[in-house]
Design goal:
By secondary structure, the protein is mostly helical. It contains three helices and no strands. It has one domain. This is Inner membrane protein YgaP-like transmembrane domain-containing protein.
Length: 77
Amino acid sequence: MDQNVGATDKRVRTAVGAVAGLASIATLANAAPLPALAAPVLGVVALAMLATAATGTCGLYALFGVDTCPADAGGSR
């Protein structure tokens, strides 16, 4: 699958993944006033965001035909 996540998109996904991961850990440690169900949900969100940022491909983007890579990159970097 060609890469469809651009550089800015990768930075945003990395930041969102890091925040979601920290919130998940804080919930597990009872340091955040969130329901217990929030920890695994936030953990999955964090893993998905970080994985798509690392690989540069997003399955949902491919499904809907979205591509945030620059036009001159040809879909892969």
